[in-house]
Amino acid sequence: MAPxxxxxxMNRIHQTTKRYFPANPPDAPPADKRALVxxxxxxxxxxxxxxxxxxxxxxxxxxxxGLDAMFPDWVQGILPYGWWGMASLLFRVLIPCAIIFLxxxxxxxxxxxSFKGQLxxxxxxxxxxxxxxxxLYLVSLxxxxxxTYPFYKPAMQGGAVYWSYTFFYxxxxxxxxxxFRGFMTFGLFKRLGYYSLWIMCIPYVMIHFGKPMSxxxxxxxxxxxxxxxxxxxxxxxxGVALHCAVAITMDFLSMWARxxxxxxxxxxxxxxxx
Length: 274
What we know:
Radius of gyration: 21 Å
Number of helices: 12
Largest sheet: none
Low-confidence stretches: none
Number of strands: 0
Shape: globular
Mean pLDDT: 92
Order of helices and strands: HHHHHHHHHHHH
Helix content: over 70%
Oligomer: single chain
């Protein structure tokens, strides 16, 4: 019986690789379909998101699309972040899930999307958040931090502007956590073990380039910890919650540090608007 088409394709790729590239060292792990698909798809999807998924792409094409005229002024400023959040779900969640289900014939829930048994897994994540709070507060007092956060400066008006922006911000983090801690980490762990964490952290740290250096270096530590904890708990969802909590706290502290008035007035503006 003839081998499946996918098997024949992989065999041709393997033979071509042997012909034009150096042979693997004797002790190197053999390549397999799962690892090759994850590495190849990750490279393509990271590239597509960089060029088509960020706020800059929307801003460069907003005049051509004419979407702004459909919304009031305060919504127009948030639309690039809506594009960013939805693109993150597309390139970092929906397409990877389609690859897992349709190509690799596996269940996305086995790649970190399961909720089963997760209530009892929250302790380490809550401890991490408590540990980070005083560090975030101290960092929030620095000019570089206040200049960076929130990304959308009108969010400081609070009310609908702040909460709409935060909604898309959270949407973006769901994409980040599944792509790096789910698709890449779970996808490579079976073949590469804990080396998968270091491989995942290379592009994860790189997407932080341009932010304060302390945050970029911290992304390496956070990426390794969140990846290891996702593997242990078999789920990314507590990592999503922690990542969102830290990001929202960073915005909160940065805005509070620049607010002229009492803390009560600040909270009132945050919830009700200026």
